# Entry
Amino acid sequence: MNQREAVGERFDSSRMQHARTQCWAALRGIRERMRPGISEEEAKVQAMQVFEELGVERLWHPVVIRIGANTLKTYRQRSDPSVRLGENDIYFIDLGLVFRGHEGDVGDTFVMGEAPERRACAEAARKLFDEVAQAWRTQGLDGRALYAFAVERADAMGWRFNHAIKGHRLGDFPHAVHKAGDLGDLEGTPSPGLWVLEIQIAHPTEPFGAFYEDLLGAPSR
# Structure
């Protein structure tokens, strides 16, 4: 096995799928609590209540909720804390949670109210994810080629691709012990059920973007 795809002795692919399923359930639970006027920090408080209800063991990365212009920011960039969700606005949720000793990582973008351009952006992030995942399934592309393809398709669709987002490993917690690096730098075809494909795009001129991520090789939601 490629060392970048190493796992621990307790690794179980069925538990990986369980963690993914539960992460999507948590994301839906947070979405149901989002209301106009809420701040990102207030939304994170709501998220913790959802996690308690679902029996989350721990977070393997901090909860990321971005609203409005903050949707342009990457995971490591700090949000403008004054931003609140408008009546016709966009936001995304990014969760990294541990269930049964295995990691899940999911993200999706949603739109509040009537905002056609923002809705198109959210839908484009999902469509781009699906196209890149299909290229992985059918062409056996390595990580670098996958992200080159993503950039090409985003440009063709009329969106700006965020080059700072390059995907990563998951596994039995903590996957970081294997120092696997980014999916976008992986030489060789990534194996199913181990790598998260991350997609972040932005409107070419307006201050908003969209994010979507999921496990490569996972069944359709």
In short: The radius of gyration is 17 Å.
